[in-house]
Design brief:
Keywords: Oxidoreductase. This is NADP-dependent 3-hydroxy acid dehydrogenase YdfG. One of its GO terms (cellular component) is membrane. This protein has helices at residues 3-6, 23-34, 46-58, 73-87, 110-138, 159-179, 197-200, 204-216, 228-239, and strands at residues 15-18, 39-43, 63-67, 92-95, 141-146, 184-191, 249-252. Helix 2 (23-34) packs parallel to helix 3 and helix 2 packs across helix 9. The protein is globular, with a radius of gyration of 19 Å. Helix 5 links the parallel strand 4 (92-95) and strand 5. It is an alpha/beta fold. It is built from nine helices and seven strands; from the N terminus they run αβαβαβαβαβαβαααβ. It has one domain: Rossmann fold (3-Layer(aba) Sandwich), CATH 3.40.50.720.
Length: 262
């Protein structure tokens, strides 16, 4: 076997997407399926991911859907077993499941704070533990973790979310060093402001207040937000990079509106 043959990507690369019931996760599942990846969708809202998987199959892709709660060790283990049984050994993990509940850091209950850390950080570690060792053994694979621009520029009234994403990036940066030479790539995709179900769940008055505070601190320089498809495109670029190329961190931000000539 030549060196190029040894390090070639297989023709079939099953991919797992967590938090796939809406937003970035759903669009990533669609984008990867269009690019030829068999996809396993995981989320708590089983009806939503089954609907998305069915649409992917109608369009000619290969997709399965199984319930997944990233705060539960047992749920993660069961999901991983089903995904492998359906599609084969997983080559790509997109750790996207996340949540944010805005509020003043001093007022947010420790339970609410901890819940965000459990999903956004510990949940990512649970799915890493489920799929990472197999990738290391096979000497190939992509681990993609969805972070946020709050990891580098924390926003007021999002203290728990910022803490969880800071922690996530710390974990992945350590992981990248640990994986060097294994053939497994760990990548961070860092979205800027994005239209998603996370923000849609906020009460309108609270969302307006929080946005005003972002403007006050210069963290919302213009009104444009990303569409989830933009992040799906970025993730697809990361995992389709040829072997020997590691896109370690990628920032994706909304372009400002074009200013009219004066």
């Amino acid at each position: 076997m030549t060196r190029s043959e040894k390090y070639a990507q297989p023709d079939r690369r099953p991919a797992v997407i967590t938090g796939a019931s809406s937003g970035i996760g759903a669009e990533t599942a669609r984008a990867l399926a269009t690019a030829g990846f068999p996809v396993a969708l995981g989320a708590r809202r089983l009806d939503r991911i089954e609907e998305i998987a069915a649409a992917i199959r109608t369009d000619g892709g290969e997709a399965v859907a199984h319930p997944l709660d990233v705060t539960s060790d047992d749920s993660v283990v069961e999901f991983a077993a089903k995904a492998v049984a359906d599609l084969g050994e997983v080559e790509v993990l997109v750790s996207n499941a996340g949540v944010t509940h805005p509020g003043a850091t001093v007022d947010v209950s420790t339970e609410t704070f901890g819940h965000q850390v459990d999903i956004n950080l510990l949940g990512a570690h649970r799915v890493l533990r489920a799929f990472g060792p197999g990738m290391i053994e096979r000497q190939r694979g992509d681990l993609v973790f969805l972070s946020s621009d709050v990891a580098v520029k924390p926003r007021p009234f999002m203290g728990a979310y910022a803490a969880s994403k800071w922690g996530l990036e710390g974990m992945v940066n350590a992981l990248q060093m640990e994986l060097e030479g294994t053939g497994v790539r760990a990548s961070i995709v860092r979205p800027g402001p994005t239209h998603s179900d996370i923000g849609n769940e906020w009460p309108a008055d609270l969302g307006g207040f929080v946005l005003e505070q972002w403007v006050r601190w210069g963290l919302a320089r213009h009104p444009h937000f990303l569409k989830a498809q933009a992040l799906a495109d970025a993730i697809t670029s990361v995992v389709t990079a040829r072997r020997g190329v590691h896109i370690s961190t990628i920032d994706v931000n909304p372009e400002a509106p074009v200013q009219e000539a004066r």
